[in-house]
Structures are given as C-alpha cells and as structure tokens.
Amino acid sequence: MTLEEKKQQVIEDFSMYEEWLDKYEYLIELGKALEPFPEEEKTQDRLIKGCQSRVWLSSEIKDGKLYFKADSDAIITKGIISLLIDVYSGHTPQEIASDDFGFVAEIGLKDNLSPTRANGLVSMIETIKEIARGE
Amino acid sequence: MLLKNIRDQFPALDQKVYGKPLVYLDNAATAQRPDSVVELQKRLSQSANANIHRAVHKLASDATEAYENAREYVRGYLNAQYASEIVFTSGATASINLVAQSFGEAFVGAGDEIIVSVAEHHSNIVPWQLLCQRKGAVIKVLDIEKNGVLSPDSLEKLISERTKIVAICHISNVLGLVNPVPELVAVCHKHGVPVLVDGAQGIVHSKVDVQELGCDFYAFSGHKIYAATGTGVLYGKKDLLDAMPPFMGGGEMIESVSFSGTTFAKAPTKFEAGTQNFNSAPTLVPALEFAKSAETDPAITEFVYKKLTEDERITLYGTGLENKIPLFSFAVKGAHHEDLALIMDKMGIALRSGQMCAEPLMDRLGVTGLLRASFAPYNTMDEARYFIECLDKAVNMLV
C-alpha cells in the first residue's frame, strides 16, 4: 500500500467508531497487538520526551526504507504509536519527512486528547520526522 | 448547608463533557468558584478598577478598601496577630519563593542546611534548591513514615546547628494526610529553627490557626480554596518579616527613592512590589467564607477509602482514615494511570494523573505516576459511587 492508501485505511477504520470509549477500545487492541519491544532497547536515548507515559521508539533502515519499532507503558499511547509506525514503516525517509501527518487531526486524535497527551502525540510525530530527516 | 444549595452556587458543575454530566474530582489542583467569588471579581472589575494605595480618587479608594479589607479578613481567618503579617502574592509558589529569596538572602549562607520533606510539591523544593545553588547551602531530606505522615522524631534527628529553616507541607497533595504540624514546629523551635508550612492543601481541609500551629510562615493559593486564580497568601511572623529584606523592587514597596539611596516600606507592602492583583485578592473573602461554611461529606471520604483499600488491584498511598482528607492517590495493578484518566475523562470524570508535581515522592514510592481523585464539599455521594463504578469499568477495559 502507498502511504496515502494506508492513511485512508486508518481514517476509515476510525470512522467506524462514534463513541470515544470505542475508539479507545480499538487503540487498546492495537496496543496489545504490537510486536514486543526488546527490553534492552528501552534506553534513555530512545525515550520520547514530552509524554506523560514513557514511549520508546527505535528505527532501522532496510533497502532505503525506514522501519519503526515502539513501546509504551500506557496502553492507549501504545495503540497510538502502533498506529503511527504501522502507517510510516516501509516508506523512504524522504516520503516521511515531507509528509504533513494531517490524518492524525482527521481522525480526531489531536483535538480530543488532553493537552499533555496531545503534546505527547506531537512529540511522537516530531520524533518520527526527525528520524526520517536524519537518514 | 444542603448539598443542593451548595451546588447551586457553582454553575461550573452543571455542565456536560462529551455528553456526560461533569464529575469534577480534580479539586486539589483547582477548585471551582462559587457565584459570590465570580460576582465580586466582576463587580470590582466594573466599578473599582483603579490602582491601589496611590491615587486619592474614589475608585482608587474603593479598590484599596476592598484589598485591605481582604487582608484583615485573612488575618482573622488565620488568627494571625497583625494584618501586616499577611502578604498577598500570586499563589503558594510565589509565597514560598518570596521566603526562599528574602529570608534566604538574609539568613542562609555557605554550608548551611535547609530541611525539606520528600513529600513536598515541587514548589516547596525547587525554590530551596535555587537558594542552595546561590548560597552554597545544602538540602536535607526528611522522609515520610510508613503510612505517609511526617514524624517529629525523624525531623529532630535531621536538625543540626547548621539548619536555617524547615519547609514542610501541612497536607501532601499526593498522600492527603494531615501532618502533625504543631509537634513538628515544636521540635524545630526547640532548636531555634523557623518553619515554613506549605498550606496549599492544608488551608482547604483543616482549620488553620497560625498561632496554634506555631509556624513562622504559612503559604497558600487562592485558586485551590475557591478564590480567583492569581491570588495567594504568605503569612509570616512580624519579627521575621520585619527582619527580611525586600526581594523585588518597584511600585508601592518603597518609602522614598533617590539615587543616593532608597528606603523601603514596612511589611507587608515591602513585599508587594508593582501593581497588585487588586480586583482578585478581595475574592479571598467570599471564598474563605464558603470554605468555612461547607465541608466534604465525611461519608464520601469513608466510602471511597473503603472501596479503594478493599480492592486488591489497587494500592492507595497515604493510609489511615483518622487524618485523611478526601484526596486519594492510587495505582492500579496492570493499568497505567494515564490510560485510566483518559478513559474516565470520556466518562465525564475529571481526575489528575501523573507525578502531580511531586517527582521525588513518586521515586520514593517507587511509581512513575499515580491517579488522583480529590473531592470538594460540592461533590455528592452519587458522584463518589459513579467514580468507583467507572474506575472498575476502566480497569476492566485495560486489564
């Protein structure tokens, strides 16, 4: 799938849920399904600053494309970061760095989360962009 | 006062969030304001908006009168001896910073010691750390006892000849236990050490008589006790305030200014530089009036305490009902505090989650954060039951 197709898919998946609690249930499922993150990689330099919960993000580049791994001690946050890395993994750094991440606002995540959480989300997006720009 | 009559005074409570009735349980962070407070602030803004202590015109005189009457009211409320012992500030943080700056400047030097408890809010830690950096002094940390309170015996062991001041909370914003302030103060005074009490929570949940408590300084914020935000009080014993230098220059704090030397006004004006929050400080009067007239139903405290302590998934920090205020910080096994707060927010319940500006205490308790529910007199038993029900639902979603 192209990046655009993946984003469209997320927007569609989210539009199925009207109630916020159902959206959270969905994010919790995503969080629980996320591939385990190696304990030894939970280092200070992989920790994203600005979140109330702890969020770790690591990346590797294969055949010119970026792949992300992430974890969080809070499950909803873990669901959000899982959603982000699902969308962006497997794309080139150029593609990711030039993306506007607008779909996050479209699914209402940004507006409906507490300010600290929204800041956490901004930090997650910024970190993904930074990694992409650095490659 | 009937609960309905209390709630009628707080229009903020009668609103819906995400389509659910608001259940406001973050009172320890900021309490909602009664009509009396909102209306007084509006009335003063409309009819007495003039700088205080300066001009001779009618509006200035009305504003000054409201401001100084509030000072006298606060004096009476705290049973301080003199109105000059009441300094208006922007909040508890500003009050503590004032003491750390001014008392610290005059009385703390290199190698001196300041005792602070591990259960302090950052506002009662960081000003002292800054002082220590400036002066080369050191902080000694008073630990909490097993149940979470501060002990006079443990405090006495920490006091040395170099101890210059002890800064402790009346009630911790995390543990919600009333500390034995008179006994803690007695121990310090035995060694000639003054005591600052952070009363941000204490003023809300206990009767504060500064002469009975015996403390040298008592600091609190207006917004936690139903007054307008940006208001606060520092009570300081007269002899100490008199001996302390001003820490901020300008405005009304001077007696006379010349380039050959400036002389300063007496306390409290000495510490109130610049234009004061004159339309808001008077709201402390109706706010404290309300605080005096209403208390949280003790049955709520007992109910929530019982429910939280008998649930095996939950660890409550700050135990013992006898000195517990209706403030509950807890961890749930397998569920992150942030997830719980987020889910319960969507159920209409406002809670606090995280470190609650008390990182050293979180480290001491071995947690990365907690969930906190804090009740006010306008909260109902139905809300307490709803909170417990929703907590159970939220935990089941996560675990």
Helices and strands in order, then pairings?
The complex is a heterodimer of chains A (135) and B (399).
Chain A: H1 3-15, H2 20-33, E1 55-62, E2 65-72, H3 75-88, H4 93-97, H5 103-106, H6 115-134
Antiparallel strand pairs in A: 1-2
Chain B: H1 3-8, E1 16-17, E2 20-21, E3 23-24, H2 35-47, H3 58-78, E4 86-89, H4 92-107, E5 113-117, H5 126-135, E6 138-142, H6 152-158, E7 163-169, H7 181-190, E8 195-198, H8 202-205, H9 210-213, E9 217-221, E10 232-236, H10 238-243, E11 254-256, E12 263-264, H11 284-293, H12 298-310, E13 314-317, E14 327-332, H13 337-346, E15 349-350, E16 352-354, H14 359-365, E17 370-374, H15 381-398
Parallel strand pairs in B: 3-15, 5-6, 5-7, 7-8, 8-9
Antiparallel strand pairs in B: 1-2, 4-10, 9-10, 11-12, 13-14, 14-17, 16-17
Helix pairs in contact in B: 4-5, 6-7, 12-15, 13-15
Describe the 3D structure.
The complex is a heterodimer of chains A (135) and B (399). Chain A has 135 residues and is mainly α. Chain A has six helices and two strands, in the order ααββαααα. Chain A has helices at residues 3-15, 20-33, 75-88, 93-97, 103-106, 115-134, and strands at 55-62, 65-72. Chain A has a two-stranded antiparallel ribbon with strand order 1-2. Chain A is globular. By secondary structure, chain B is of the alpha/beta class. Chain B has 15 helices and 17 strands. Chain B has helices spanning 3-8, 35-47, 58-78, 92-107, 126-135, 152-158, 181-190, 202-205, 210-213, 238-243, 284-293, 298-310, 337-346, 359-365, 381-398; strands at residues 16-17, 20-21, 23-24, 86-89, 113-117, 138-142, 163-169, 195-198, 217-221, 232-236, 254-256, 263-264, 314-317, 327-332, 349-350, 352-354, 370-374. In chain B, helix 6 (152-158) packs parallel to helix 7, helix 12 (298-310) packs parallel to helix 15 and helix 13 (337-346) crosses helix 15 (381-398). Chain B is globular. The two termini of chain B are 41 Å apart. The interface between A and B is medium-sized, with 17 and 16 residues.
